[in-house]
Amino acid sequence: MIWVKDVMTPISGFLTDTDTCREALQRVMDEDAAGWPVVDSAGEFVGLATPRALGRLLKEEGPETPCLGGVEFGPIVLKATLPLETAWSRSFQVAAVCREDGQIIGILSRSALAVALYRRAEFQVEELEAVLNSAHNGIVVINREGMITSFNRAAERFTHVPKEKALGRHVLDVLIPLGLLETLQTGLSEYSQKFRVGRHTYIMNRDPVKQEGKITGAVGVFQDISEIESVSQELASVKALNRELDSVIQSSSDGFVVTDAAGSIIRTNAAFENMSQSTAQELLGRRIQELGEGEIYAHSLLDVVLERRHPVTVTEKKQDHSFLVTGSPVFDEEGRLVRVVINLRDMTMLNQLRQELQESQRLSEKYHLELAELRQRGDTGGMVASSPELEEVLELIRRVAKVDSTVLLLGESGVGKEGMANLLHNRSPRAEGPFIKVNCGAIPEQLLESELFGYESGAFTGARREGKIGLFELAHNGTLLLDEIGDLPFNLQAKLLRVLQEREVVPVGGTRPRRVNVRILAATHKDLEEMVRLGKLREDLFFRLNVVPIWIPPLRERRADIVPLLHHFRERFCKKYGLQREFAPDAVEAFYQYDWPGNVRELENMVERLIVMAAGDLITLGQLPPVFRGPSEEGGGVSVHTLMPLREAVLEVERQLIERAMAKYGSTYKAAEALGVNQSTVVRRLAKLRRNADNA
Description:
This protein has 27 helices and 29 strands.
């Protein structure tokens, strides 16, 4: 144990309140201290003069100013016999140190305390590494990924694999299967497992490594029983850092105790404390020879190890318990014995402990799987899903995301096919790879081939000198979404089929195929089977794309999603534009009853339009387009409900058609295309309708 007095800076006298700032600063600098105690005229301690405070006082008041202006009053005072860990828990930068009678005897800075704690931790790590390397048994430790983190000298000797080539590599790349990965998965300890390598027979014990109740690795301890003929096991669990090394030791069901060369106990684990019926505080610092026969089963072994200076294994029976006790000496670089490691195993409790551990691990695994499943079901990746119909689609997305099968997303325009594709990618093992989207109908046919497959240098006039990588290669190790696959030109379908079959592309102007590792997703609102029948889509390509078809129902078939989507988009656009808008109940009901031919996209555009155009904070039914207040589209489209002049009736029908097109498509360009007129015509009609509405 290291105390505060061991790392403090001793003081030789005090500063007084009559000392000048210059004298105080000179004293602190001469002593190379983080501060110096100051007493008043009565000799009472009042505070610490620190270099920083004195420097500020010197700059502001001058060197002859009394030093009291540079004193930090009421500082933390630590007792000299305080352990370093307790001192570290106190909040201070510079503290005074006193004896038991309160007399100030030194100064301690937080930086000096940190250095002392670090050096002690570093020594403990080296000490535990020495324990591992001195063990007679081979010890291999892996982390949760199966990578080897510890590999002692005995393991090198048994496996003929140098430690440098083992550390940091996967256990299956270094050793024959030892069962450590199974231990990592099941969390079950296994003992006395025999296996043969060449002419040698080994016996192995495997235990999981637990930290804070979780399995963080596995340790295997094996011994060559072809030479020693008796079963002996020593579980020495350690890793690169002190906390991990200590976790290995504490997770062992064997009793574990380390003594120095004189037999004084310097480290134990919980199992040893139970066997000795003592606490760690009662054991640490005591000589193991002083413990009585009824308390412990290892004291008699120490003298034998000290005498023979090599590992010794004995069996002992105490109070109907049979113990296997192994003692191993640890030597420093100069050959001096510095530690003795003693391992105790209660063989009578082995079966009982194994059954209890199996049950505990079974429950833990069960709860873990149930929790993971609940979390996965609750995570929709940002998709708003309240209806059973969309929940079924999301459940199917979660299942197929785990495999690399080609997925065909089907559904009307605006139902969210691209969002589903993005969710599928993010839930797949390729989530860390790129997600490339291409709209097959938005790129001119002349450019689509070079965009998808790339081209070589000089492939055609205007091509880049260095060529260009296609989208398939950009999506390597990731996912490629072919949106609007029904618009893919017929002459490119054979080339796409080759990519799907061979997983290789040939750039335009190239001759050598390039391998690509890409998962293909396709999406369309068209009837691909009808296109196959009409000869517009290759049948073999259809079969390649239609491996896992997923139909996304339109919004009118899953009305339970309409109101949640309405509030979702309202919150998004209110936040985006810094507005505060609410929908009246009659407006919400109108949204619910409307058939939404443009699906989610139409709903999103309509909410944005109402948010930015509403005159007040409450959006009512009267502010919605007439299509929401009249009969639904199922009733026969636009309508005039009363007698009026023919010219006014024509204008009313024109207004309904334009408003429906704008509500569905959200842009004058697409609305004009749907209505079969020029964009300028739609713009002029909208302006006229708005003027008429303002005049009314």
